[in-house]
Amino acid sequence: MNNSQSLTTRLLLVLLLTTQQVLASLSVFHDIYAYPKYEVNFLDDQYYTVEEAKILLSLNALSSASTAESANSTFSYQLVKTPKEDYLCEIEHIRPDSNDSEDRISKEKQEIIDKIPILSQSIKSELEGKCILLVDGYWTYSLCNNSQVSQFHGGVNSLSNPKLFRYILGNVPSSADAEKEKDLTAKSNYTVGRDHISWYLSKTFDNGTICDLTGLPRTVEVQYSCNPTEGNANLFSSKEYSTCNYIVKISVPELCQEKVFRSRRDPFVSEIKCQKVLQGLGSGEELDHAPQQESMHLPSKISLLNYDLHSLGQELFSGFPKADDDDIIILIDLDSNAENLIERFGSVYFKSLEQNKLVSPAQATILQNEAIGYYFNAHVYDHKGDYEATLEIAFEKQDPPIITITSPKDLLRITSNVKSVITLKDVIGKAMKEGRK
């Protein structure tokens, strides 16, 4: 990515971030051809250290340099600076040749079709004997007894007025289809549809008031969906999509019992996840807009001959540098991998501290102040000396340690609580004793 492209991307990202709240308050028609689409999420309870941010930002240059890696890459990273905070944003790129979204949508649709007999009963029990209304400007819309949709001018109390003039937008089938309609297990009563964020069931009500412009009865498509924020059935939208043909949307809480209806994300919308970059954690240095890989002091390949290796168990080794200016490393055994590194390292962490396999006697002094907590990080390499991931452990006072892995290969960031019967005070005491010997 050249400088002009990088600047353009950052400017677009800043624009997305500043307009997100404004766009969220607007009701717009979604253009299905308006791609790519982005959804911005700030993860306030998660963060990156400066070192992590540098590693992830370097992936942009690495991906650009390798055609093979670029073809498989699904994420890129951009740094966004604000007057108060720095954010590192992970941008998801949905590949045009990927069929994952289409396959998932097809499976979800079939799942709903198979459950229509049960879902139709849920809709009936939720709406039978009720009138729900929507006041939408001049017009008020009503769905009564899940059998008739009408349009009239007036408030909610107007329904009880026998002289109220209203247009009937549609009725449930009543003549030749009456017997079929009584059979609520008939799948043909409902069709399955999806808008830009969620699934819905729909049914067409016909035989409404004759339209003056077309000379045909009005019709209305009633769409039933789940809105997790609504506790009661609600008529929340109406639209005349063509002359005297309408769509009304109903939220039915019972549908939220099915996980597939609770999905509120467009599978073709790319997600942008932004996390704060903590300054002062680790080296405390500032983060540049475009860090270069060589400035990260993180070699992608090392010689294991330059390290004294100690077995930690779980097919893991710690490596103490023979030269004072290098950092401790974690080595993954020949037949192992980084996939379950959190669980494996967590199980040997305290024992390794106790035996000085992660810190030297001189370094054990960093553990003596329990009040300020403890921070440990190491780069993980495989048996060939190739960089795999960065491993961090941090905790404050008596809180359980947090182990975090940042893996450029898998673009995976996992956080897990680690529990142990050995307290931090015990570890400090034993480590200090060993250091004095």
From TrEMBL:
Its main location: endoplasmic reticulum. It is found in: Endoplasmic reticulum membrane. Keywords: Disulfide bond, Endoplasmic reticulum, Lectin, Membrane, Signal. Residues 129-258 form the MRH domain. It is a peripheral membrane protein. One of its GO terms (biological process) is retrograde protein transport, ER to cytosol. GO terms for cellular component: endoplasmic reticulum lumen; endoplasmic reticulum membrane. InterPro entries: Man6P_isomerase_rcpt-bd_dom_sf (IPR009011), MRH_dom (IPR044865), OS-9-like (IPR045149), OS9-like_dom (IPR012913). Residues 1-24 form the signal peptide. Lectin involved in the quality control of the secretory pathway. As a member of the endoplasmic reticulum-associated degradation lumenal (ERAD-L) surveillance system, targets misfolded endoplasmic reticulum lumenal glycoproteins for degradation. PANTHER family: ENDOPLASMIC RETICULUM LECTIN 1, OS-9-RELATED. This is Endoplasmic reticulum lectin. It comes from Wickerhamomyces pijperi.
